[in-house]
């Protein structure tokens, strides 16, 4: 609304220009610290040092609580929540409650900021937890949403993952006939041996 004009922003908010400058400087410092924590945490994840990454990722998220509605902040939050969820699962197991909460938080802040493949990867993680804890109604809802998003995005990998998710959910719900029909709709029946269908999680979907 102010076009980046500090004086106009100060007038609009009823504060002095110096106050605006201090707030902008503080925000830049917060962003700088958050990015540094995220980069260091990500490096630890790459080295499989998950326990070392956890406090850095937590600090990143704490710092980002300020101005959390801004798009660039939401992007950083998405990456931090995603990596923190991964670390917590690696340390405490797939069913660790805080890890699941991190994936849900990543999905919430990533809406409208991240691309379809990133959202799909998070949803696949959420669906996996729902299935393994036998939250079958929720798992079916997640799988259905995955299918809809993948179809809208025209993303083959995401679509394959969504069909696998829905097929497994239907099987556990006892609907074997519809599970086979879902596989057929996804083109995952009678897949040729040389047809590699790798998911975003590194799974060979064609061999499942």
Briefly summarize what is shown.
Helices cover 72% and strands 0% of the residues. The protein has nine helices and no strands. α2 packs antiparallel against α3 and α3 runs antiparallel to α4.
C-alpha Rg (nearest Å)? 21 Å
Helix content: over 70%
Oligomer: single chain
Compressed to H and E, one letter per element, the order equals HHHHHHHHH
Q: What structural class do you assign from the helix and strand content?
A: mainly alpha
Q: Characterize the biggest β-sheet.
A: none
Distance between the termini: 53 Å
Low-confidence stretches: 8-14
Count the beta strands.
Answer: 0
Approximate shape: elongated
Overall residue-averaged pLDDT value: 83
- Strand-residue fraction? under 5%
Verbal overview:
Helix 1 crosses helix 2, helix 3 (50-63) packs antiparallel against helix 4 and helix 5 (97-110) packs antiparallel against helix 6 (116-132). It is built from nine helices and no strands. It is mostly helical and 208 residues long. Helices cover 72% and strands 0% of the residues. The chain is elongated, with a radius of gyration of 21 Å.
Keywords:
208 residues, mainly alpha, 0% strand, 9 helices
Topology:
Blueprint: H1 6-13, H2 17-46, H3 50-63, H4 71-92, H5 97-110, H6 116-132, H7 136-153, H8 156-172, H9 176-185
Helix pairs in contact: 1-2, 2-3, 2-4, 3-4, 4-5, 5-6, 6-7, 6-8, 7-8, 8-9
């Amino acid at each position: 609304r102010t076009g980046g004009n500090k004086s106009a922003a100060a007038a609009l908010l009823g504060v002095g220009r110096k106050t605006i400058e201090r707030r902008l400087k503080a925000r830049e410092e917060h962003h700088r610290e958050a990015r540094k924590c995220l980069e260091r945490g990500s490096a630890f994840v790459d080295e499989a040092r998950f326990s070392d990454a956890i406090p850095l990722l937590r600090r990143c998220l704490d710092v980002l609580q300020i101005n959390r509605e801004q798009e660039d902040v939401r992007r950083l939050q998405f990456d931090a929540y995603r990596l923190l969820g991964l670390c917590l699962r690696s340390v405490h197991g797939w069913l660790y409650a805080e890890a699941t909460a991190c994936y849900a938080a990543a999905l919430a802040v990533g809406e409208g900021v991240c691309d379809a493949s990133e959202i799909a990867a998070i949803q696949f993680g959420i669906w996996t937890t729902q299935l393994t804890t036998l939250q079958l109604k929720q798992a079916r809802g997640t799988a259905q949403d995955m299918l809809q998003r993948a179809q809208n995005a025209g993303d083959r990998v995401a679509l394959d993952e969504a069909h696998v998710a829905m097929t497994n959910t239907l099987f556990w719900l006892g609907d074997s006939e519809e599970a086979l029909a879902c596989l057929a709709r996804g083109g995952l029946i009678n897949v040729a041996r040389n047809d590699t269908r790798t998911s975003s999680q590194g799974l060979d979907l064609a061999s499942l």
